[in-house]
Amino acid sequence: MAEAKRRYGMVIDLDKCTGCQACAVACKMENNVDLGVFWNRVYRMGPVGAYPDAVEMFYFPNQCMHCEHPSCVEVCPTKATYQTDEGVVLVDANLCFGCQYCIWACPYEARTLNPKTKTVEKCILCVHKLERGEQPACAYTCTTGCRTVGDLDDPESAISKVLEANADRVYRVHPEFGNNPSVVYLVPRKGAETLCKSIGH
Amino acid sequence: MQIHWPLVISTACQRVGLGMFACAFLANLALGTVLPLNVVALATLTLLAVGGIASIFHLQTPARFFNAFSNFGSHLTQEALITPFLGIALLACGLNGFVYDMGPATIVVETAACILAAAFLACTGLAYQMRSRPAWNTGFVLGLFLLTAAEAGSIAVCAVCVLIGAVVPTGLAVATGVLFVACVVVQCAYLARMRHVGYGVDVRVNEEPYKTVFYLWLAVGVACTGAGLAAGLAVASSELLLAAAVASALGIVAWTVLFFKGACKVKMFPMYPVDLNLDM
Amino acid sequence: MASIIPLPDGGKIVKTNCFECHAKCGVLCEVDKDGTLVNVKGNPEDPRSEGRMCGKGLSARAILYDPDRLRYPLRRKGERGAGDWEQITWDEAIEWLAGRVEEITAEHGAESIAYGQGTGRGTNQWTGRAGNAGGRVHHSLSPGNICLVPMMVQALLQFGMFPTFDGCDFDNADCIVFWGSNSVWTEPTYTSGQIGRSRDRGAKLIVIDPFFEHPLAAKADCFLGVRPGSDTYVAYAWLNVIMNEGLYDRAFTQKHTNAPMLIIEGADVPLNEALLREGGNPQAMLVWDRKTQSMVEIHSKDIDEDIEYRGTVKTVDGQEVPVKTVWLGLKERADQWTPEAAEEKCWVKADVIRESARMYAQAPAATINVFQGLEEQTNCKDTLQLVNCIIAICGNLEKKGGNLSMPFWNQMGPLTGAEPATQRELRVVDERASGSIYGISNPTCLFEAMRTGKPYPLKGYIMVQGNPLSWAENTALVKESLMCLDLLVCMDYYMSPTCEIADLVLPSTHWTERDYLADEVCSEWVFAQQKAVEPLYERKSDVWFWRTFGHRLNPEWWPWETDEELFNWQLEQTHAGVTWDELKEAWIHRVPQMPSREYEQNGFGTPTGRAELYSVICLVSGSKPFPEASEPKESVFSAPELAAEYPLTGVTGRRYPIYYHSAYRGIPHLREIVPEPQVVFHTSLAEELGIERGEWVWIESPTGRITMKARPSDGIDPRVCVIPHGWWQACPALDLPGYPDGMSNANTITSDRVYNDEYLTPGLRSTLCRIVKKKAGE
């Protein structure tokens, strides 16, 4: 029987993320990412609201969502951007000619044009580590343990268990676009009431 | 979005050039003009060449241009695939009567060129439609790409008409006028739509940072073009009509700049009144 | 060797510990066959960090190979601060330095040389040893008074151990409190993972901090946006609620704190046996035993202590004195601070204070983590004492899920050696603060001695890993003082602003380049921090410097011939039960725990054998035994004339998770995350002042003025602003500037006028200031 194909995904628990930037640095160091190019950034929403009782704030790590239906793959004229059969979206730097069409099309601001190499770069889900059975650098080092990477199609995987245990907090950014990101967030339990209300939690 | 000047130039050249050819072809076919399509084709080719060189500047590694033919689903690849055929068809039209005479085959080649021109414009227009930028997430984009081409093209055709000493047929004048008005109306509708595209990126063009370009478009693309067109048609002045054509082309440039500026990316969390923050 | 794992390609993995901060997380360093550091990542075998690692540690390659780092010993050639250096050898440097020290000692006495450090990188004890070896006075010109000493010593006085730093048992707590601390950014790897797990199983979170941008504030069940320095009122209000609502742990309070200890009404001194009968022991303190209806010595077993006893006793000389218990004495004070009364002073709503106090006290196990937010205030002794009382009466001491003793903190004494006999006499303090508990010199007084020669001249300052032009209050005056020295020596990673004006600058090895022990803040373990790569250029470790230089001056104090011999001795003193070679092999070793872990049998290491609410040692040292509800000495309430001109209360010292104090703004991939210093204040204040986000503004205080970018925020009280420290370094790779002459240095505006009496601490975190919009052209 053929081995079942994996579908890689990542869950990021925004209730845990403290915006420490360790993941952003780990990514830079692991992948030797150039200055001015960002594969992984941690943003902060807020603080916004009336101090001190109605202020909201949370941190938001942002990187490629490795969508099931990636907008970038759809529009790339050179097929430099492609998706592996395990769901990881990658860029072949030898084919890319820097038209930046993919950057326009990506709803998640995941991609940067590297002015040195003149090609587009983004998170690669550390496929080189996944192949060795290791977690991507960001998930490995996360100081709060808020990231888990694994096989979404395997109900016994760590990621599936986290998603199941927190099913009431699962959130994909802009699901109405139909990209179906494989990077899934868990909304904060507190401090993001506006977000939670707007998505019906 | 930042303004990609090479693309502003190239798409403006494409619309003016191909619009002009298509309108000239259709005018000859249905409105009783006898315009020199070979000359028009050569002018179109020139404009396309200028636009092509400009768009090469947009690529970071132009030497890899030939990779563009790989993804049939991508509108850019479609555009790239159409290009050589369009070029050949236009060249065939352009040389017809100078180097050889195609005789009865002319109409076939011209029709083909017109269809390819429309297809090229359609693919390019569609390339700018995308969900990630709410201002561009609409059929308006394709529609306006074609309409602006038609407006500029028809005005240019009127100018050519007067230039070669012919009278502008009523049908052509009316069609040009209608296209101009329709284009402006649809453009205004597009701008009105931009005011409530949601996702935290509503655009009010009468405010900064859009104000200047918006007024520029109104002045050049609407007022000057309209005035030049009306006056030029009234007194059959080739200078006025040429001025109107140039104003229309510059109006397309201003419009395209506004088009890029308004193309803000969806906010990740539009339900909040503030942006995501990188400041620590 | 189990701590070195060879790789098939000839490289190796070295198990060691990071030292970008003091957490010392376990690291796996990957080194290639040529000895080049290739990669670092966390070691999952570290029981604290479990393989996690922060952005600073991960940047090891960039810091190790940073071309801007010091490489060779440099001696000043031209004018001080002119930047004219000659490269010398280590032998020359040590000899020259020894010569200078001997000359200055001969002329002015050993007391004219101060030894110190900044953050230090694990060498607190050796700096102390160097100072003590001088034989006259160890000035300890270091930021100890603003970091670690207040909270550590106050805990040692009250508990005989230190449980409020790395002793917090986050993993088992039902309620976690961060009080003036941001450990998920500063010690993230042994806090954040544990806190996440606890919250997942329903643990409550309380954050007491002026800044809502504290990474846990929005997630907290209770956020107390406290006025900087007003934590005494919050703490007393907590005691008010806990004591009056009976939420304290009665058994623990009765049996294991000195709540039942009898004190004399009015004088507030302990009732002792000698007062009651002839020949009685003056050291014996007493409690009222309900079983025998008599007063018994506090160490007695099988008694039923009455924590609410009040009565009169007849003394040996026939007087009738009223006595009461410590509990009643504390409660009387707490009764004045209802949450409503506290609200006015601390700017936190009464119901939030009440709710948070109940949340903490009612949790089956709760832990409180404190740090510099409570320390860097002129009322730090009181706040820290109050927090310790809260922990004790709620029975969270030495309890799973509470605050546990950690061994290292008790072991410093033997390592530094005995202080000189003339320490108290020769240390330099003044009437502003006696330093009744922390017996070193006040840095500000030392700086004055450098300038004026009063009370006696201070001619030399030798330090490692320190940049007083960043950490010390009133930077401009500090610089002026250092310029008066005859001898200034700095050992550091980079040519900091202090190094620039030194006579001798020594190049320090990075943690990847040095062998050392990792024992401080290492919870229940000690680690071998072995080097991953050979030291580059001529860098040496700080430990090697102290030992070698110490040996040259005072071989009796520094007999060890090699660093390894020192490590063995160090491990012996700290009762680790392992040698350096064994530790290097294994990398990790669990050390014996404190006796108070079994407090039922062993009690606590204090005069009463109990956790002290009323501190006997504080009384004996000349401080107050009860905590006071004290106000910071320069605040909107205590200095209203000053506050009229400078109405904002500025908090300095906010953390960045990617920088460490004044270090690492030159590392490009870190600097691009936080490129510029920003002062944070409320959006309404920005509107009022007409200031836009990103505008450079002045921040002014009676001491001076600096400039930073404005960042309006909703997450702060409109009467408070947040001023980051540590900004001096440029980043040429990113074309980002440095900030010379303290122009954006928080300490340019902090006060050197008022100090905490016991610990000599300045009020860095409640600085009266104002924000001023720049005029055109400024």
TrEMBL record, chain A:
An example molecular function term from Gene Ontology annotations: metal ion binding
Domain 4Fe-4S ferredoxin-type: 8-38, 55-86, 87-116
Cross-referenced Gene3D superfamilies: 3.30.70.20
CDD domains: PsrB (cd10551)
UniProt-listed InterPro entries: 4Fe4S_Fe-S-bd, 4Fe4S_Fe_S_CS, ET_IronSulfur_Cluster-Binding
Keywords carried by this UniProt record: 4Fe-4S, Iron, Iron-sulfur, Metal-binding
Superkingdom of the organism of origin: Bacteria
PANTHER family: PROTEIN NRFC, PROTEIN NRFC HOMOLOG
Protein name listed in UniProt: 4Fe-4S ferredoxin
Natural source organism: Enteroscipio rubneri
Automatic annotation (TrEMBL), chain B:
Annotated keywords: Membrane, Transmembrane, Transmembrane helix
Residue stretches spanning the membrane: 12-31, 37-59, 80-99, 105-128, 140-166, 172-192, 213-234, 240-260
A cellular component term, taken from the record's GO annotations: plasma membrane
GO biological process entries: anaerobic electron transport chain
Keyword Transmembrane: yes
Keyword Membrane: yes
Organism domain of life: Bacteria
One Gene Ontology molecular-function label: dimethyl sulfoxide reductase activity
PANTHER family noted in UniProt: ANAEROBIC DIMETHYL SULFOXIDE REDUCTASE CHAIN C, ANAEROBIC DIMETHYL SULFOXIDE REDUCTASE CHAIN YNFH
The protein, known as: DMSO reductase
Organism whose genome encodes this protein: Enteroscipio rubneri
TrEMBL record, chain C:
4Fe-4S Mo/W bis-MGD-type domain ranges (all copies): 11-68
Gene Ontology molecular functions: acetylene hydratase activity; iron-sulfur cluster binding; metal ion binding; molybdopterin cofactor binding; oxidoreductase activity
Signal peptide stretch: none
Domain of life: Bacteria
InterPro entries in alphabetical order: Asp_de-COase-like_dom_sf, MopB_CT_Acetylene-hydratase, MoPterin_dinucl-bd_dom, Mopterin_OxRdtase, Mopterin_OxRdtase_4Fe-4S_dom, Prok_Mopterin_Oxidored
SUPFAM superfamilies found in the cross-reference section: ADC-like, Formate dehydrogenase/DMSO reductase, domains 1-3
Pfam families xref list: Molybdop_Fe4S4 (PF04879), Molybdopterin (PF00384), Molydop_binding (PF01568)
Iron as UniProt keyword: yes
SMART domains linked: Molybdop_Fe4S4 (SM00926)
Keyword terms of this UniProt record: Iron, Iron-sulfur, Metal-binding
Family of the protein in this entry: Belongs to the prokaryotic molybdopterin-containing oxidoreductase family.
Protein name in UniProt: Dehydrogenase
